[in-house]
Amino acid sequence: MIDSGHIESGDSESSSQQNGGPVPGPPRPGPHLMPRSAGAPAPDAGEVAQAPDTDPDAVTAAVSALLVQVDEVRQAVDGTFDLSALGRQTELLEQAHDVLTTALEDVDTR
């Protein structure tokens, strides 16, 4: 007799999914890659340039100032590859990204 409430399969993957195991598809980012509003810890105060406020002109000015510094670093190495200069440009671009992200989070109406 067939028990309609229980279907047994030899596929161990399907049983691991039912038991909270791996889920098919691409991996999902952990909390360290999610925006702060989604659970990632807030960075230290000195670590990230914060958006001055949600005024679009102030945010634009802050990001523009950071991008000017990125360009100054690029000009200082005069087209040669310099790992420390690349690292500094990366830091500045991350700060600009953080300013923009913070400004967006501040005006998010969700």
From TrEMBL:
Chain intervals for the UniProt region annotation (Disordered): 1-57
Biased segments, Pro residues type: 23-32
Bias type Low complexity, positions: 48-57
Superkingdom of the source species: Bacteria
Protein name, UniProt field: Uncharacterized protein
Species, as recorded: Gordonia insulae
